[in-house]
Fold this protein.
Amino acid sequence: MRSDTRGIDVRAGEADSVADVVVFGSGAAGLAAAVTAAAAGCTVQLFEKAGTVGGTTAKSGGVYWIPGNHLMDERGIDDPEDRAIRYMARVSAPDRYRPDDALLGLTKWEHDLISGYYGLASEAVEFLGGIGALRSTIEMALRFPDYHMGLPEQGGVYGRALCPADDEGRPTGGADLVAQLTAAARRLGVRVATRQAFTDLLVDGGRVVGAVVRDLENARDREVRARLGVVLAVGGFTHDPRRREQHLPARVWGGCAAPANTGDALGALDSLGIPLHNMECAWWDQVAIEHTHQGSTETRAGMWVAPGDSSLIVDLAGHRVGNEKLFYSDRAKIHLGEGAPELLVLLFDSRTEQLFSTEQFAYPLALPGESTSHLVSGDSWEQLCAGLDSRLHSLRSVTGGARLRSDFRSNLAATIARFNDLAAAGVDADHGRGVEPIERFFTGEPRAGGGPNPVMAPLHEAGPYHAVLIGLGTLDTKGGPRTTTTGQVLDENSDPVPGLYAVGNCAASPSNDGYWAAGATIGPALAFGYGAGRHLTTQRPIGTYAHEQGVTS
């Protein structure tokens, strides 16, 4: 840390509570850290800003990507370390990847975290399972492809994308992952408090010894001391408009991160002179823009895939812009770069609405009973185009006056005719739709009446037709301080800051702007949260405040 910054100096006798470990954030990362430390006998206090625990993890599908996991071993699935690391390296830094280099073209920090992740991730899941904190199943993973199966480094391996399981071993989701970890935390004595926000760090002689917590119910700040360390697991800054504009490379309309993810850790880290890394990176996605400008930038989900088979995405000139089934983070990069479009249009027919609206990956189709106000509909393409033009006019204060190009309708007619011909032939000669295994997985089983390509079907000759205005969103951002595999925050000299840990999306991800596979967010959250919890148990306590100061614990 810079010698001229000290955070908030400790004032003896003024702490309100004390624990061995203080954790902020109750998603997968924070809960894994809390449970691991508590299982080793540490006293742990966990604070959550929202009214309920779980953060973005609770909204997720609950998948965690664990290469070389023990469930693969039990089934005889080979996933050698060297190959998995090379896959992660190539996806994380495709422009720098060098297979003949000792660090594979990565920086030492990137290589340390990626190579350390391989063993730590499997160890974390096995540990959490062993103490009854998280049941895992591989059944879905055996058919869930990684996002870049075509790379030779991937090796055709299935089985890395684990998910939580219920008492009978059936796959569940993010809410159950949080429920299992929270139950284990409470069983191990972790004190969990909601509506409590991280505000600042307490520093003594260059060591972080606690934090300032704001009780959101009564707007009161209080100090909490940590004998061993403070773990920041408060998520990214998706819902902080100032930081989005400052750091991200294009307009981000919002995202499906929990609404409490407003970059709360960044101010305290910056005041201590701790460098931030990968602040321009995110787990990219696309969202319906009409879900993001009326009071909240949070969306129910992200557009994991353009839903259905009879659907396509066009620009405001009516031209198709890419492979609509490309996995979400890479597909969303169409919005990045000079001259990139802020707005695109998702188009689909009644077939897609009827057959796919209840699927797991249907967003932004409306679920039964959900509002359809973000949809534009018309009984013909002419009516739909007129409705789109009217909708854009009504949104001009939000979009900066974006409108359909004057030749949109004629261009769209040619685009749809071309799309229908390609769908009937079963080969997308323009954008390669349907080539990657993940495209078929996200689309689901082929529906009756489709074409030879299971992710592509001609649009009906008769309406109604529907459209949604879409733009860039995030699952969350992935920038923050660089850390070790044990979650220790690194200062400007790449030395660990004593007593300070950061895990999950408030820490810099070594994946940069890459995305290894489904669960490449929760997997590292569990692994590095576990690594932080384990490392904390090796630290020498700083004082015994409860006895020396008369503080209640």
In short: The longest helix spans residues 108-130. The first strand starts at residue 8 and ends at 9. The chain has 15 helices and 20 strands. The two ends are 29 Å apart (CA to CA).
